[in-house]
Amino acid sequence: MGTLRRECLDHVLILSKQHLRKVLAEYARHYNSQRTLHQNPPAGRADPAAAATNMRVLRRDRLGGLIHEYAQGA
Question: What pTM was estimated for this model as a whole?
Answer without folding.
Answer: 0.52
